[in-house]
Amino acid sequence: MSLPRLATTVATLTALVLAVAKVVVGFMSGSVAVIASALDSILDMVISIFNNIAVRVSESKPDHKFNYGKGKIEGLAALFEGLFISASGLFIIYEGIRKIIHHEAITEINISIYVMLFSMLATLALVLFLAYVVKKTNHLVIKSDLLHYKTDLLTNGAVLVSLIIVKLTGWYYIDFILSILIGIYIIKEASEIVKEGFEILLDVSLDFETVEKIKEIIKKEPLVLDYHCLRTRKAGNRNFVDVHLVLTPDMKLKLAHTIIENVEDKIRAIDPDKKWIINIHADPYDDSHINKLLEECE
C-alpha cells in the first residue's frame, strides 16, 4: 500500500470511530451541534473512502483503453461528494431551526463535552499524520484531506466551546445556532468541492504560477524563436502540457530533438513528484493563425 493510500485509509477509520461516538452521544444528549459534528464526521469518512478509491484508480497506469490514465476519477468523486455534503448541510440547518422552534433542551452535557474533546485530540493526531504524508509525497488528494481535517479541528473546537457555554449558562440556543452555522459552512465547502470537480472534468489548466514557469522556460531556450498553442491540464497525479515551438527552418532533426528534450526536462523539474505528459510540436515558422482557424488552440 502506497503512503497516500495508507493516509486515506487511516483518515477513513478515524472518521468512522468519531462518527459512531458522536452519533450515539448526540442522540443521547439531544445536542444538534454534536449531531451536526457527527454528520460532518460521516461526510469525512465518505470523502476519505472516495479519496482512497481516487488515489488507487488515479495511480493505475495508462492502458490500451485508457491511454491517458484514469485521473479524472477525482472529478467524478468530487461531484458526488459535493452533492452529498450539500444535502447533509441542509439537513443540519433544518434540525437546528426545528429544535429552536420546539424549544427542545439538551441533556447529558458532560458526556457530550468528553466526546468532543476526544474528537479534537483524535483529529489533531490525524492532521499531524496527514501533514507528514504531504511532506513526504506532496500528493494533491492528501493535501485536500489535510486542509479538510484542519477545518474539522476548528469546527470540533467551536462545538466544544458551545457545549461548555451551555453547561455554564444553560443557554442551549447557542448549540442550535452553532449547528445552523456549521450547516452553512458545510454547504460552502461543498460548493468548492463541486467547482473543483467540474474544473477537472472540463480540463482546467494548471495553476497560473506553473503555466508562467513553463512560459519562462520556453522563452529562455536560446534556439527557440517563438511558441504558440500552449495548453495544459491535469488529471490525478499527471500534468499534461502541449505546445508548438518555432525553430529555424534549416535546423537538423537531431538538434531540434535535443532542444525539445531540454525543454521537457526543465518543465518536469518544476514539480518532480508529478508525472508529466509533454507533447511538443516543432514548427519551421509561426503557423498559429492556422491553428486558431482549425480551433486547435486559442
Strand and helix map with partners:
Elements: H1 3-29, H2 32-59, H3 73-101, H4 109-137, H5 140-169, H6 173-201, H7 208-220, E1 226-235, E2 238-246, H8 253-268, E3 275-283, H9 288-293
Parallel strand pairs: 2-3
Antiparallel strand pairs: 1-2
Helix pairs in contact: 1-2, 1-4, 2-3, 2-5, 2-6, 3-6, 4-5, 5-6
Summarize the structure.
This protein has helices at 3-29, 32-59, 73-101, 109-137, 140-169, 173-201, 208-220, 253-268, 288-293; strands at 226-235, 238-246, 275-283.
Describe the structure.
The protein is mainly alpha-helical and 298 residues long. 69% of the residues lie in helices and 9% in strands. It is built from nine helices and three strands. Strands 1-2-3 form a three-stranded mixed beta sheet, with helices on one face. Strand 1 and strand 2 (238-246) form a beta hairpin. Helix 2 packs antiparallel against helix 3 and helix 3 (73-101) runs antiparallel to helix 6. The longest helix has 30 residues, at 140-169. It is elongated, with a radius of gyration of 25 Å. The two termini are 42 Å apart. The mean pLDDT is 81.
